[in-house]
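Quick start: what a row looks like.
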Amino acid sequence: GILADYGSLGYTRRVREAVVSTQSTGEPQRTGRELKVKCDLDLDNVKLDDPKNPDNVNWYRVTDDGDELLDDDDNFAIERARGTYNLVFKNPQVDDSGSYRCEFDQAGFEASSEVAIQFVD
């Protein structure tokens, strides 16, 4: 959203936004080989209660039955570093193919980006 501030010092325009971007993997990926999918978060003038909170951004697998929140387990790892949230497929299989979404939803702002990944033997 855009906030306009009509103060006594004239007119200042502050743009507040959250942008999430994912990197497309392009070609089909090989099964059994670790794959990292990068998600970047760019915030402009958005104040977070806790900028270091790893849950500021979440990865979901998009399914017909709704989106499934991903977390560190045998199949996935989520690497969180400042502003970057990588989804790591540890040992991907064909049935891991599909759409995955990286989402930011904090401080009244929501932004997400989806990436389609295909794994082949």
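That is the whole record. The CA atoms of residues 52 and 79 lie 13 Å apart. The longest strand covers residues 98-106.
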